[in-house]
Amino acid sequence: MPKDGKPGDPRSARGASGSSGSSGRGSSGSRPAGSRTSGGKGPAGKGGRTRPVTNVVSPQRPWGLIAAAIAVVVFAGAVLTYAVLKVREADANAIDSVSEIDGVQTYTDLSQDHTTATVTYEQSPPVGGPHEPPPGWADCTGTVYDVDIRHENAVHSLEHGAVWITYDPAALSDDDIATLADLVEGRAGRMMSPYEGLDAPVSIQAWGHQLKVDSADDPRLEEFADFLTLNSEFTPEPGASCENPDFIAAPRLASEDAAAPADGAAPTAAESSTTAPAE
């Protein structure tokens, strides 16, 4: 009998068994393609594990801070615009010459002599001429007097570059006087006082210049003061002091008697009884 036909050949048994087993799995133990089970947990991802659900959170925008920042920017822009407009307005209203101020009277060849006598000035209020010797100038550091100060002392202040506002107390209200004081208080080189017998409600003086107006609200008063206060072009003694605390403490009055000149006549603006170098 051939060797291959020997019963009990293990190789034949394995081949038969393998063929039969393979056929059995294909017919009875098969599952649909692509289907897997993972411990009864349902469909699985790679490796049999489920993917966790991802929660997507939209970022929150700080609308309140953005709105506040925009408001600040808008406000700053408005303030800057207002400041620029004010500067342009001030430049447009700036005075480059006394002649631009309507109504200003100009006087020249004014004496700078010193005298202790009472002077009869050609202008009222005076705008220059003989005046009280040093240190007899009236304080002009933004000083508001409530008395008619001695004119000779006031003229000495004009020589130092001061602007002097005078007014008729009978013609103005308290509010009008306060309006004038606003042009003077805290302003170096300015002073103000009532003036008895003034022929206009308000008169403003600098050395050699004068303007008379009917109202304390007249804009020319501010123009005059801004242009001529301590203006070296028109000041005989630029840089001279306007401070005199002793005069503030005890102002000399226009009604005070002065020492009579030797010939018994009061000097005029063209001459004085006592002279000394100007200061």
Task: Indicate the topology.
Layout (H helix, E strand, L loop, with lengths): L9 H19 L34 H31 L11 E2 L34 E4 L6 H9 L3 E5 L6 H9 L7 E5 L7 E5 L2 E5 L5 H10 L16 H5 L30
Task: Tell me about this structure.
By secondary structure, the chain is α/β, with parallel strands linked by helices. It contains 6 helices and 6 strands. It has helices at residues 10-28, 63-93, 151-159, 174-182, 219-228, 245-249, and strands at 105-106, 141-144, 163-167, 190-194, 202-206, 209-213. The protein has a 6-stranded mixed β-sheet with strand order 1-6-5-3-4-2. A hairpin with a 2-residue loop joins strand 5 and strand 6. It is elongated and about 120 Å long. Residues 12-30, 32-40 and 260-279 have low confidence and may be disordered.
Strand content: 5-15%
Distinct helical segment count: 6
Number of strands: 6
The residue fraction in helices comes out at 25-40%
The sequence of SSEs as H and E is HHEEHEHEEEHH
Largest sheet: 6 strands, mixed
Low-confidence stretches: 12-30, 32-40, 260-279
CATH class of the domain at 105-249: Alpha Beta
Shape from CA axes?
A: elongated
- Our measurement of the CA-to-CA distance between the termini, rounded to an integer number of angstroms, reads 162 Å
Question: What are the key terms here?
Answer:
279 residues; alpha/beta; Glutaredoxin; 6-stranded mixed sheet; 6 helices; 6 strands; disordered C terminus
